[in-house]
Amino acid sequence: MYEAPYPPYDLQDKNSFALGSYETLEKHWPAILTNLASHINQLVNDITVEFDKTRDNDGSSDPAAQLKIGEGKEIISKAIRLKYRMESDQELEKIPEDGEFYVEEYNSELERLAQLGKNRWFVVPWLFAESYIFRLIRSFFKQTTHWVDFDPFREQKVEAFRNSATAVYQVATIMHDMECEKDRLVEPTRLLVFFKEMLQMCLWGNATDLAFLIHLAPSDIEQFQKVERDAQEARKEFILRNDEELVWEHINSLEHQAGLVPRCDLVLDNAGFELFTDLVFADFLVTHTPYLSKVVFHPKLFPWFVSDVTPADFYKTIQSLSSPTFFNGTTTTAESARHLKNMIERWERYLKEGVFCLSTELEDGYEKTQFWTGPWPYWYMEDKANKLWRSLSESSLVIIKGDLNYRKLTGDVKWPVSTPFVTALGPLAGSFPLLSLRTNKSDIVAGVPQDVAVRLDEKDKRWRINGKYALISFMPKGRVNKGDIDNMGVPSHIACG
After folding, report:
1. Quick one: CA torsion of 403, 407, 409, 410, rounded to 10 degrees?
2. Each residue of 155-172: pLDDT tens digit?
3. Residue 9 — φ and ψ, nearest 5°?
4. Residue-level pLDDT at 228
5. pLDDT digit string, tens, across residues 132-145
6. What's the rounded Cα separation, in Å, for the pair 449 and 292?
7. What does pTM read for this prediction?
8. β-pair partners for 263
């Protein structure tokens, strides 16, 4: 099995180039567990009040409510216990046999880490530990009767999206204006301009990550969501690697591939505003370009990293956008509301026609989708999830969104920043045409010139983790000729096959 020539980031790194992992252990994970326990506690209290009221009124007791209260208290206890074990540097415990997938795989990795003396919280590899936490949280709910399908982060996701109303209406109007200019978009240079704008909107949508923005106010989050042309132009200097021209060149080439079913696969990251921008970009690709005719969206099967998209989130988002009261209290014009309504009706039609679909709805979709919540880097996709790998290898373009997915793509190891993106992809490189859109919220960076990194280290030591900088990284499909790589980490020659 492939092993990178550099070690993974761990949770003890405190130096200026690895701030993210230590802060995650010290602040972010404890906050997530505290918020989860507090949220469940409030719900249990509400159920208890209703239970007591019913019992006092007619003397009856509800066994189901009583069981739900007990199960809720058990979840709270497990979350608090996990936080304590984490903060006191104890060993990571095995995932219980909860009937969910990948129990054996996570526990086998724990055994391997134990042999290396890396199975305690302060020394465990960061990426594995974070995946483990959310898989363990899933077991807290999976082992219950009344909480088994409960998403403890749903309210956070919905509320954050509700605070995105201003940007949502602006984007809807942008899409309306584009529809009015549809006849002029046949001009390639004009279409390229719109493509770049839509791509960057999709990129910066990734900045709104609840696990990352957990302490920010709605007004702060709104700053990340500015979609005006001037705002996007101002942020261009923060894109440290920009392969948008290469992506467009690839998309253009699809028109000339006879017999090809032009499908885009989009591996989702965050729910809410980011998912909205993903849908907008997908809409642009199938509505306003002649190159792609179908988009398959890949969610996570259960609540993951606080804000990742589940199937329920996907459909709930479209339902919310269809509701005239979801953004209640937000001032907008009747015209903007109509623009949004028209766009959502188009998306609903695309879902009915199969132009848009979730990966879970396709053949073997549930099995294929499991991989995204596994314990491994995506390096091992061909071996660990061969059906998924073969499906993506038939895709015209695979877009992989977000910081977590970038860490999984590159193994979250300490690659030098100038390491070519193709090298950091390991065995996955060339498996399919891959576009990674990521705002930087963790230490791993690849494909950025060393001198750029040095200047940024002098200017802003948190550039790797503060979400202000971004990467647009593209890797075509095909065998990579080793050594035939330019200084930006983009293969200058791809041999077909």
Report:
1. 130
2. 999 999 999 999 999 999
3. -65, 140
4. 53
5. 999 999 999 999 99
6. 33
7. 0.92
8. 294
Contact criterion met (CB below 8 Å) for 58 and 86: no
Using the Cα atoms of residue 246, residue 248, residue 252 and residue 258 in order, give the sign of their dihedral: positive
- The backbone torsions φ and ψ at residue 13, rounded to the nearest 5 degrees and listed phi first, read -65, 120
Tokens representing residue 8 in the block: 């993974």
CB–CB of 172/346 below 8 Å? no
In angstroms, the CA 205 to CA 276 distance is 8
- Find tokens 């942008």 and name the residue: 174
Residue segments in the chain with a per-residue pLDDT below the cut of 70: 14-20, 59, 208-232, 256-260, 479-497
d(CA 322, CA 318): 6
